[in-house]
Amino acid sequence: MVNAPGSATTRTYAMGRQADRPTSPGSLEAALGLALVAAEGTRGVLGLLRRHSPEEVWAAGRRDLLEWTEGRPWVDRFIDLRSRTFPREASSAVAAAGLVFIPWGSAGYEADLLALDLPPAGLFVKATPDAFDQFSVGARVAVVGTRKASDYGLRVARAIGRAFAERGVWVVSGLALGIDGRAHRGCLEAGGRSAAVLGCGADVIYPRRHRELYERVSSEGVILSELPPGVRPAPWSFPERNRLLAAISHAVVVVEAPRRSGALITAHRALDLGREVFAVPGRVQESVNEGSNRLLYDGATMCLDPASLVEDFLRFTRKETSPFLSGVRDHGSADSGESGLEQAGRLAVMALSAGPCSVDAVAGVAGITSREASAALGLLELRGQVVRVSPGTYGLSER
Amino acid sequence: MAAVRAYALIGTGAVGVQVEAHVRPGLPGVSVVGLPGVAVREARERVRSGAASTGLPLPTQRITVNLSPADVKKEGPGFDLPVALAVLAASGYMGTGALQGVGAMGELALDGRVRPIHGMLSMAEAARDEGLRLLVVPLVGLAEACAVDGVHAVGVRDLREAVMLLRDAEKCDRFLERGRRWLRARKNVVTIDRGPDLADIAGQRHAKRALEVAAAGGHHLMMVGPPGAGKTMLARRLPSVLPLLDAGEALEVTRVWSVAGLHRAEAGLATQRPFRAPHNSASRAAIIGGGSPPRPGEASLAHRGVLFMDEFPEFGRDVIESLRQPLEEGLVVISRKAGSLTLPAAFTLVGAMNPCPCGNLMHPERVCRCTADMLDRYRGRLSGAVGDRIDLFIDVPPLELSAFESSGGLDDDSAVVRARVESARSYRLEREAFLGTPPPGSESGSTVGQSHPARLEARLGLSESARSLLREAISRHVVGGRGYVRALTVARTLADLDCVAGISAEHVAEALSLRDPGYEYRGASSAAVSW
Questions:
Q1: What are the counts of helices (DSSP H) followed by strands (DSSP E) for chain A?
Q2: Of A112, B188, B257, B470, most Cβ neighbours within 10 A?
Q3: Per DSSP, what are the bridge partners of residue A269?
Q4: Minimal C-alpha gap between A125 and chain B (Å)
């Protein structure tokens, strides 16, 4: 059944790219079994995958396991769980959830994942085959940050998402509220492709508020998770997700992160893996920036602006950009026939791109009169391009 | 028996009162009948002393003073002089015809001097309407009484002068001539003080522009900003950019202020537009008027000027609701058991409020501790009939920001802005006259709100691009029905300021930026934000 032609689980992505580690039906079942058992609570078994194949682990006897793990107490629990887990049946549930399982050792399984302490037994993916193929060969950058982001952080996240999208770099993030979501959106807006690594089953939409974003990423990009379908998010699953996020990306950009933040975990796992870490400077004495500024203090590369960040990323990772540029919309200069109001609006947007400010300040920076600025902002607010962030202060809308 | 005309104040108007005095044998004494108030009843003591000091002692006989009509309540010390003149005439100090067609007003001092009283302008108008041949007024109040065209007022310093000029026509002419000289001399002394100037404020160009628009269109204005942003400073300068009072308006203002006792009698007519800033603890009666006898409230004192209500939501709900009538009709009606009284109250309302009760909402450094409930209640005060009448809403950012941000040369001072406001107003009158209907006056018209949209748009000269922008605003639910009318009228004012017949898209866009944002500020720097 698992092997039936056309069944979702048997279709292996990126088969033609590097077939040096062929995937046997047995190893697929074993990997799926390990993924299921690991999700049940004996994650330690994944550590064995650094030196043993899933087939070996799945078939190993108690003595071997005790020897390999130097007598870890979870071995008996693993054996018990293993005896009650039937990967063959689970594979149909995976297919039913619209997911594909990319097992350990298959071509789609990024070799870098093996460098992790606990390599995933496989990845559950929700994507079109084409998208996943592109993802596995493309340049990928993780853009992460806090859920409770400031207006500034959100704006920068979006700009960074756009900037990477325009150079054809995959923007990978966690689909969370705040920075993550905004980075995804910025990328998609600019016609780029985005991937989300989830801390729950790849078919579980979390947070619920990001349903629409989830749909877009899954239809235009890639959603992946090491947790089997239907698994709800748990507090422990996010740090684990973050290590996967770090391993699957070629570099990590931290936009805004407080001192104890998942984004910092991602950054530190990336450092463990020898990845480049970038951080966006934030204002001092604001808790939301403590973690990201600390990264800079400790030697992370500073994001000067989105464009130079992309250049630095490409230089550090020596990644070729993939051919999405053709799809990127042109945000170039305005046509010559614009009205005075539109021109003032354009100038006002430029003035606001430096940060929210008052009507008078917009007028000053844009070199227009206060009433022109007023009219321009009235129009832009009407169109949803600017919002009032506080009394007297306009900011660019993040939508 | 002798009789003279006096005047009783009712609201800001005055009605004629016949003061009759009769002297007959009997127990010596003066009695006053005809619904006198306490101050009028006491007039007999001042009259007795004043007359004696002047060398005209009252006869030791029974003196009865009657005030007619007897059903009008007479209040205040203004009856002293007429009562004294009637009593002296009845006592034989003057010929019987001396008081024919004569009116008088003024308070007597014990030494016989005549002091000015409240409401002399209204009384002089009533005297003019009655066609009196002579009106005897305190010399100090001559300027105020003579502001009324067609009144024959003569100013007196004391009771003796009053008796002299009534006894002798030649003396009367001399006193009239003295009065004219006195008025001419005053004219050179009176300086016109326009109050604080717009040029005193650095930056805040956005707010200054809003003041200009408010002045040009007679729009009511709400300023939202944290404490110390300069909202009060800005509001105080609105009178200085309003057009100068015309003759009719000056009379209206002086009438109210004089009745309230706030007008300096020797100043003649008011030259400045009023600026009233009642505290938010003010009662409903203090704002719209009341008391017994009813006195004008702050709304009437601000007539033809500015009523500034700082901390607007902190005013009592009943106070805010009571503004509805003045905002809609430009007057207040005080209804009493005895009847209702109409007082003028056509003012420009300027409100100021904090973004939230504690004032720290969205402040870059401070923390707002208001609960969502508190915010709802606070903002809720603005909804309803009164909030709907406020056309202009502006945010006033904290001063430290805007002071640094204001760049470039000096801004226009009040005189320059006022010139633009005056030209906008006259342009509007011209436009209205051309269109062939009477102009709705200086207030944002209630008539506008009742018109059919298409007719209104055509009448106001909405251009095609402006129309489509306004349609877009409606379809995006940025403005509703009322908001549409408000945006349209404000846009019309902006076009008037430019002296152009057509409302352009720029005008509409600027009008939209001056609307009520609903105070749903987004993008909080501390709060969690969904994506």
A1: 16, 12
A2: B470
A3: none
A4: 23
